[in-house]
Amino acid sequence: MINFKIEWLYSDFKAGAIPKPSDYPVHFELLIRFPDIEPGDDHVAHLCFNVITPNVAAVRGIDLSSHRGYVIKATFNYPDIVREVEAVITHALSSVVDDRTRREAIAALNERYIYRDANFAREFRADLLEPAAVVALINAAFDGVTRGDGTTLHEAMMMDDWGSIEAQKDARKFDLESRWQDVPASDICNNPSYMGFVDTAGFRYYLPANMVWSLTPDNGDQWGVPFFTYLRLFPTIAPRNVGQGLGANFNVANFIKDHSFSRPQVNAIYRFLCYMAIEGGGDVDEDKYPTMCQWRNAAAL
User: What is the rounded distance in angstroms from the CA atom of residue 164 to the CA atom of residue 247?
Assistant: First the structure.
């Protein structure tokens, strides 16, 4: 049997704690570490699942017919859950003798729990361009895009800081540029979350600035701005909802319409997503995959 170690990363409740019905589902995350595999791809496998009672599932309309991603327990007992899951994992890995059988075992575990490390990025490699080529597409497609009365960067930062309406209005005076190409790099790199607080006009204006900065070599990123920019173009899936198919609910066509993106702009966005997914530290997990396919179709590639 292959050498492995199970490490429990997170749960909503620890041993000895008893959740109330309103606390369910109780989310768990763990990893399986394979010490004999060098750090990197395949060194670990992340799994997650939710514990839920039959009664709560019925009230919430959760379909437990497949049981994928759920452990059904009438009562919550943390040690019992850990022992049960570790027994399932140990059984699944008991016959692993090489890389092929290890992958088969993980695939089998994915039918019961959620395997977080599945990555479909390779399916989009044919559309990968060099960063300079993507930047050229962005510059050409978004040239002339203005912010108008849209939310400004500093205004969004003030929203993020729970500033008053008056403080938000005052913050607009710090954004004096009229072209997205002139947004200061320091404002972008030091504020990874501001894109989550701008309106549609502000998003359309700042997106190309963020994408170009993200693709700039040696940009000195310290806060994960490229990754957060990447995520803004996908649905937000809470950890406890991973692997439940909610990613398929994101409507890219409506997103494009809401932000008035042109076909060249959609193409530039898609090429940015491809680069980020394959070379930029992102991924295309099972929740992002349907959205990525929609972006590819919208770009008519």
Answer: 34
- Dist CA 216 CA 34 (whole Å): 35
Domain boundaries defined on the chain: 5-115, 121-298
Residue 301 pLDDT grade (very low, low, confident, very high; cuts 50, 70, 90): low
Q: Which residues are CB-neighbours of 102 under 8 A, at least 6 positions away?
A: 2, 34, 42, 93, 96
Rounded to a whole number of angstroms, the distance between the first and last alpha carbons of the chain is 45
pLDDT tens-digit map of 135-182: 999 999 999 999 999 999 999 999 999 999 999 999 999 999 999 999
| Distance (Å, whole) CA 224 – CA 43 | 23
Neighbouring residues of 274: CB distance < 8 A, sequence distance ≥ 6: 124, 125, 127, 128, 129
Instruction: Please check the confidence at residue 252 and state whether its pLDDT lies above 70.
Output: yes
Q: Which of 210, 238, 234 has the alpha carbon at shortest distance from 223?
A: 210
